[in-house]
């Protein structure tokens, strides 16, 4: 486990897709275990915040939707006429199909968060993303696509890992994330799947709270702010177009 190496940027998309396919069957249980069920609270916050920012929102795109947790919460917002969930793991999406009731308002699509060419400019009032941005091979390219498909004054809410604040808690957080969290994965799947080493190690290459906020500002998103959860173990960034 100590010898684990992250995939190269060129190999990352296929690596992530293949390994997420491999863990799809128990991904929800893994998330419950490793976050002590808090991921559900954070995802609910994402949707509430998005609706609060755009009270008259009619359309929402949930990128890297996985098994559909955030898309399901968007579906529960009756004002939304269109909810699109997009993920490049077919097996993860298969669980979203079972989780979200059949509804003409909802589309679940296979696709790449860095290439949203199937959507016109200004297609959505809301774009959400839960623990997916650190898995793309080019964060800025992905964010520019998000900006393009957002309507003027639309909102982007991104939930992902953060850096623990205050610093004295970092040792304990790192121990949990790098040592304990992979054990949950091994208990569910055995040691043949590298995803449970990838998940904590990918956080080291992912921008911290302030850096990601600055990237969003650099790309001309407006009103950029972030909300830390559990001392920054997870963080939600909010930005308008």
Q: Nearest-angstrom radius of gyration?
A: 17 Å
Individual helix count: 9
CATH superfamily: Vaccinia Virus protein VP39
Instruction: Give the domain tally.
Output: 1
Our estimate of the beta-strand percent is: 15-25%
Low-confidence stretches: none
CATH class call = Alpha Beta
- Overall mean pLDDT stands at 89
CATH topology label: Rossmann fold
Q: How many distinct beta strands?
A: 7
Query: What is the molecular shape?
Result: globular
Outline the biggest β-sheet.
7 strands, mixed
Strand order of the largest sheet: 3-2-1-4-5-7-6
Condensed summary:
The chain is of the alpha/beta class and 241 residues long.
Outline the structure in words.
- The protein is globular.
- It has helices at residues 12-23, 27-35, 38-53, 69-75, 90-99, 139-149, 170-189, 195-204, 209-218, and strands at residues 59-63, 82-87, 106-110, 124-130, 150-161, 222-229, 234-240.
- It has a 7-stranded mixed β-sheet with strand order 3-2-1-4-5-7-6, with helices on both faces.
- A hairpin with a 4-residue loop joins β6 (222-229) and β7 (234-240).
- The chain has 9 helices and 7 strands.
- Helix content is 44%, strand content 21%.
- With 241 residues, the chain is α/β, with parallel strands linked by helices.
